[in-house]
Design a protein that fits this description.
2 copies of one chain form a homodimer. With about 260 residues, the first copy, chain A, is an all-alpha fold. The first copy, chain A, contains 11 helices and no strands.
Chain lengths: ~260, ~260
């Protein structure tokens, strides 16, 4: 993929729309299981050489495997445990430079983990409490959800880079002025946000109901569409923006000083 | 879960219907990537201390992690690498005895791997060939698909056990007579099979199209519904039956000899 293809705003938008499907699917899968608080309680299960909760342990194991198949070489993947990754066993891919060199340092995963565990899990689970046989299944679904949400939120880096490339003068001035509010306004499109929420309601409805039961009394939504729209409104969209702003605020670290000087 | 709940045919059927959703979701996710033949080619990537293809290596790593969170203690989970599993780090669950003691020995996973790689992957992938950046992603999706299909097919053991419990005299006679055909006929319900296929077409359609584009020119099915129905018709349903028959043919190994003698 060429940088100009990756940074085409139409392509970015299409990728973001496709990620909604993955997130909705993953939340529907998670909804089969109890909320499973034991999974999120630090050191509830004594794990040798590990300090943390069960989900964190399981997620770390997955990242260790995935790092070996070079998941985190991809600029659109952001690990939860960047300091613990292993070397890939596949030959390296020389991705073209698309994002700024500090891009990996912008990592919202600890915030994602927090709102996911505290706000999302209790709302999408089919029932509150533990079901001992399903702690592993619940955490496996959690990992899918977390990875999908994390990819969506950190995709903000591509949006930010694309907007920066489109209008360097505007952004260089805003960044030099430290105008966080101005940057945020420039990347906010309320009409698009409203469209996302409307589309999520339809997707959650369409993917979350067994269509062969659509007109029966058993018709049941696996996850309430409002919960998914709310997840986006309250967490995913604002955190994506935060990633974009954080990325842009540092953007001059990776810009030609001569160009910057023209705007001082 | 009590054995009588697990072996209730209504509950088993509901679980099988729910698994369809998972399988359809997983195939839709796989369809984002190229067919990626390199992933399935033995020793295409030299992996230290491993003889096999890349997918097998990645799947083994996952099973090693999942075995530690006791996935394979559950009677409805069947590993692809049973001889290599690790010990769980969670306290063991004492599942009530539901299936016969030899149940773990009935394992159709090598057949599942074969038809999945040869027949399903080329048909659901968005394009034929390799896309180097996505070999890891493709194989991650493959693992989800394989595990979901394997769970569905081996669930036949519960169907078989439930049917055996419902009519021991019939099955003891058929088993003593080595009447494979009779056993197969007794577990076959063509009307139910036709319903499954019809429902899959509707599900693939409903879950595979972005509903906000349903009436637009961009309306696109991520996976052709006929491919998913065909997968069930040609592979999943026959292999489930094979699992059921294999399970039943050995069922007297775990029956009271006195009862068996009444039918000799």
């Amino acid at each position: 993929m060429k940088p100009e293809t990756v940074l085409d705003l139409g392509n970015i938008r299409a990728a973001l729309v496709r990620m909604e499907d993955t997130i909705v699917f993953d939340l529907i899968e998670r909804s089969q299981f109890f909320s499973s608080p034991s999974v999120y309680q630090p050191n509830k299960f004594p794990i040798p050489n590990f300090d943390g909760n069960f989900l964190e342990w399981a997620l770390l194991q997955m990242e260790l495997v995935h790092s070996q198949i070079r998941r985190y070489e991809a600029p659109d993947e952001t690990p939860f445990f960047p300091e613990k990754l292993m070397k890939p066993i596949l030959p390296p891919i020389n991705y073209p430079k698309i994002l700024a060199s500090y891009s990996d340092e912008i990592n919202a995963n600890s915030e994602i983990m927090k709102f996911y565990v505290e706000e999302i899990v209790p709302k999408v689970s089919c029932k509150q409490g533990d079901q001992l046989e399903n702690l592993g299944s619940a955490s496996t679904c959690d990992i899918e959800c977390l990875q999908a949400i994390s990819r969506r939120i950190h995709f903000g880096k591509f949006v930010a880079e694309a907007k920066y490339q489109q209008d360097k003068p505007l952004y260089i001035k805003l960044i030099l002025a430290g105008d966080t509010k101005g940057i945020e306004d420039s990347i906010t499109n309320s009409a698009v946000e409203a469209k996302i929420l409307a589309r999520l309601l339809v997707k959650a409805e369409s993917y979350g109901i067994d269509p062969s039961l659509r007109y029966s009394q058993n018709r049941q939504n696996k996850v309430q569409p409002e919960i998914i729209a709310q997840l986006y409104k309250q967490w995913i969209i604002p955190l994506t923006k935060k990633v974009e702003v954080d990325y842009l605020l540092r953007r001059l670290e990776d810009e030609d000083p001569k160009l910057i000087n023209q705007y001082r």
